[in-house]
Amino acid sequence: MILEYKDIPIFYKDQGQGNVVVLLHGFLETSIMWKNLISEIDNTHRVIAIDLLGHGQTGCLGYIHTMEMMAEAVGFVLDYLKIKTAILIGHSMGGYVALAFAEAHPEKVERLCLVNSTPFSDSPERQINRDRAVRAVKQNHKNFIRMSIANLFSVDHREQFVEEIEFIKMVAMKLPVQGIVAALEGMKIRKDRSGILKNSDVPKLVILGHQDPVLEYDTVLPQLKGLGVEIVAFVGGHMSYIENIKEFTYKVKLFIEN
Question: CA angle, 248 as apex, 231 and 35 as ends, to 5°?
């Protein structure tokens, strides 16, 4: 489905019946990343999967897509569909957007799940790496995509998931350079939202990868303690929905059903 929003298209999928689950993809991904999970839950839930700004079939709004801007676009879709409350599940960047949405609309969030994501802002070192990534994208975005996607998987899984890696690369190659840069700039300046997790009374789940090359497990784990979240960690990297598909699907289903 396509909606017009601020003179750009927003693409979303809407299928199934029941309590609403909103799925928000990560950086360099699109709503297609959720196809396996959707097939597992759309018989019991209404599932809304949205292409975030500058990704998939959703257009770009500017040079920077802040997490607040992305959350506002998500809210526009949910308002159009007259959805009052939902379970939010966000992978990586999608988790940042889910937190921004929860901050703006706490009354609309029934449950919140962050997949290979964090409520914390970028460290100064991480911000420098974002700037390097922006330069690399502007120089040759295809090379950037080729290198970035494989590196999201744990070293032990890269050969095992060659086909999946190639598919993600193919999807990412279709993204506009503006959308990639705008997301990097937006993630770089996102604020710390750990307080959203700590102060919210809704059930919260964080899924981590022991060998995540993006979010260092030994650093993130102690930071999350005391925030009132359930933490689940799998053996693997930043792509738990692929690297640990059975365990991931089971845990998500358990979270949204109980």
Answer: 135
**pTM exceeding 0.85:** yes
Sheet holding 45-50, edge to edge: 2-5, 8-15, 45-50, 19-24, 86-91, 109-115, 204-209, 230-234
The residue type at 52: L
Q: How is the chain split into domains, by residue range?
A: 2-257
Render pLDDT for 166-213 as a digit per residue (tens, 0 to 9).
999 999 999 999 999 999 999 999 999 999 999 999 999 999 999 999
Q: 230-234 and 19-24 as β-strands: parallel, antiparallel, unpaired?
A: unpaired
Rg of the Cα atoms in the chain: 17
227 close to 181: Cβ distance less than 8 angstroms: no
The domain 2-257: what is its CATH number?
3.40.50.1820
